[in-house]
Amino acid sequence: MNYRHAFHAGNFADVLKHAVLARVLMHLAEKPAAFRVLDTHAGAGLYDLAGPEASRTGEWRDGIGRVLAVKDMPQTIAALLAPYLDALAACGGGGSQNGIPSRYPGSPLIAARLMRPQDRLVACELEPGAAGALARALGRDARAKRIAIDGWLALKAYLPPKERRGLVLIDPPFEKPDEFARLSKAVAGAVRKWPSGVYMIWHPVKNRRESEAFLQTLADACIPKVMRLEISVGGEADGLTTSGLVLINPPWRLADELTPLLDWLVPLLARGPGAAARLDWIAKD
To answer: What φ, ψ does residue 132 adopt, rounded to 5°?
Structure first.
């Protein structure tokens, strides 16, 4: 699977991933001690929704476009989405189209927007074009460090963080056939180095057997507190229709927050029959 993100920015998978990211960061910020965010595959940081890539697919229209078009959002959902949508509005800039910001932030910019002065971000991106764009997007934010390093190596080099609290976001491009095997090995190794960290792992669900095998490797590694999230928009369209997240050591109230959020997102983002969501535990001590 080739997942060059400029084509997919703001799609249904981004909506789930970034809404959950924002919730995790809000929970981390409840304690005064500093935390660290390690984003292993950070990408370009900011994406032009009117640019040639996003315009070619138009995926954002069935993702963040639908969310922002809602006129009367339930108060509970509005409260859950507020950090994500506030970060989006702050990074959007450059005008809007029917209320949709012209630019969509990736995970490093959302993290930077929601961090406090004492928190830190390490954003890793090796591809030269994306790395340059990421440096420009982060600007002179002293809390954020952009490093041109392979994300898999970053898991070995930057864990555990000196803050001893924080989040590791792993969002690889899934361009190689052995990506799930590499992901399994990398996650198991990272958790051994830093067992108390919060880990958030994005993956496409294109092949159910492959996805289940990945989850089984986490169970076999005896990693406690592994939560699975999935959202499917249904239909028979080409491309990605089901997106998955795995959370290791999620904040203890997160599952209670995400259940109503998923229930609300499924009919909003549905593209046809079979739209559904899933939240369960692969391991829970």
So the answer is: -65, -40
pLDDT score of 99: 65
Half-sphere CA count of 207, side-chain side, radius 13 A: 9
The matching CATH number, chosen from 3.40.50.740, 3.40.50.150, 3.90.1150.10, 3.40.50.10490, for 5-283 is: 3.40.50.150
39: three-class secondary structure by DSSP:
strand
Token code pair at residue 87: 């970060």
CB 183, CB 170: distance < 8 Å: yes
CA–CA–CA angle 153, 156, 161 (5° rounding)? 125
The CA radius of gyration of the chain, in Å to the nearest whole number, is 17
Q: Which pLDDT value is given to residue 233?
A: 96
- What average pLDDT values come out for the chain (285 residues) when binned by 10 residues? 73 97 98 98 93 88 94 96 94 63 93 98 96 95 96 96 97 87 94 97 92 90 93 85 96 96 98 95 87
Structural contact between residues 46 and 113, judged by C-beta atoms closer than 8 angstroms: no
Question: Which class for 250: exposed (0-12), middle (13-18), buried (19 or more C-beta within 10 A)?
Answer: buried
Query: In this predicted structure, what is the pLDDT of residue 131?
Result: 95
Task: Output the pLDDT for position 96.
Answer: 56
Q: Are 258 and 20 in contact (CB under 8 A)?
A: yes
Is 14 labeled as catalytic in the residue annotation?
no
Active-site residue, selected from the candidate residues 62, 119, 171, 285: 171
Task: Tell me, rounded to whole angstroms, the distance of Cα 191 from its chain centroid.
Answer: 19
Token readout for 63 is: 């993702």
How far, CA to CA in Å, does 285 sit from each of 216, 227, 259, 280? 16, 11, 20, 13
